[in-house]
Amino acid sequence: MIRVLDPGVFSTVQDLGRPGFTALGVPAGGAADPLALRAGNLVLGNPPGSAALELTMIGGRFAFDRPARAVVSAGGAEVWADGTPAAVGEVIEVAAGGEVRVGRITAGFRAYLCIDGGVAADRVFGSASTDPTSGFGGFGGRVLRAGDAVGLGPATPALGPGRPPPAWRGALADQCGRRTLRAVVGPHSDMVPGARTFWEEAFTVTSRSDRAGLRLAGPTVATTAGGRLASEGMMPGAVQVPQGGQPIILMPDGPTTGGYPVVAVVAAVDLPTLGQLPPNAVIRFESVTVAQARALWAARERPLEVPA
Amino acid sequence: MTTGGEAFNLAWASERHLRVVFADPDAAARVAGAYAALRDAGVRGITDLTPASTTLLVHLDPRADPGSVEGAVRSLLVGARPHGAATASREVNVPACYGGDMGPDLPDLCRRSGLTEAEAVRLHSGPAYTVRFIGFSPGFPYLTGLPLPLAMPRLDEPRTLVPAGSIAIAGDQAGIYPRATAGGWRIVGRTPLALFDPALPDPVLLRPGDRVRFRPISIEEFSALAGVRGGRTG
Q1: What is the maximal distance between C-alpha atoms in chain B?
Q2: Which residue from A136, A213, A233 is facing B52, i.e. has the nearest CB?
Q3: A68 touches A143 (CB < 8 A)
Q4: Contact A115, A158 (CB under 8 A)
Q5: Does the beta carbon of A262 lie under 8 angstroms from any beta carbon of chain B?
Q6: Which is nearest to A100 in space by CA: B186, A109, A108, A91?
Q7: Taking 70 as the threshold, does the pLDDT of residue B187 lie above it?
Q8: For a tag site, which of A4, A141, B124, B160 has the least CB within 10 Å?
Q9: Is pLDDT of A199 > 60?
């Protein structure tokens, strides 16, 4: 088990989410940066979707009651093991009673504290991910607090050297620094006369953003939908334009259906970046075709595949 | 496209989503039929299906071969038959405390419609609504049957926090927020009923096809009922 000594700013249990239940209104959820979660688990030899602690902005302090191997997976973060500085993305051997502290996340916005055997937590709709908005899954359906005791899976043996392939490091660095999001033209683009403004101008991620959506501020993107569009299925990465003209990018815990016009959908290749954009990040959108979006995703994923 | 009398349009909404739009009349029954056909077929590469009032969104695993999934979806859509409403329609009674802090947009609705608050409440609690689909957030019912004078556009800018149980309007749709979330619908009242409880074997109270009636209650009755699950009467 892990004892939470300091919960940080916003720490939750996350795995790769629960796709398949949007017909009940249940969002897929899961790690805001699934690439970083997978990377941390692979370094440990865990299945890539093992549950871990998702840390936001400032990590926290965690004490272990069993010997463990831990990895802090992030673009960059301050990490200490029993007070000694430790490296991001590398295995930290923790003795029983030892502790890992994660300070500021220095590149990107989220880090994953992965542990051998994974975090054991409430599984709801097939996933241990916390949905803090609706209050279920993970640790009591909520954000971690000081004093919480989070369960761990059984310890697993260390892996040999050479895994995972070094491509992970480059992919994580790239996505944490990325400020131009590749996106395809959305299904309601014809209801957004301001679409040109959307594609040409820069927008700022506001502090009113969370795991449900990134609220942007920037030039007004005019729409004609009048707030009367029938609600329909949404997806993480959908860029909605409410009548006020300030776009919102849907995140993993976002609404499963919505009625604001979707001017664009962020390509799968850049979804992990959405989880790493800090407040005040200035971003732009680059239009890609469906075929280009698929090629970008395949080009990113291919070198990350781990030989069996 | 239109194929063999089945009117639907199938297009890529992103590189990993197929969006199916059904033509009226009877779009709701076509959505229900298509959803059932795709769900039951278990097409490899499809990770989720999101039915709504006139659309069905098909989510693909990015690793899937998009061409073969599109082909399978298209042939299933052509073969799907429209579904009637739910098999066994239940009627659920939803207590509703209107106006004041619980319905902050009721005064604005009255200004726009020219109705008094009492008239608006009588109108809203009059008809039996039908649950068309569940979406937005866990257990959120999209209801049809809103009397036309109560139709209202969404807020220009969604609220960052709508209280759990808020009874809301967007266009000609009515709905109820099961949990506190951000939301852009107009809020006219609040119910103490729990619409989503993940601890229960059946976490979602309302299902597509259920009929819903709102019953006006006082703030005192709201407090007395807070958090109850019941409400099923049929």
Answers
A1: 58
A2: A233
A3: no
A4: no
A5: yes
A6: A91
A7: yes
A8: B160
A9: yes
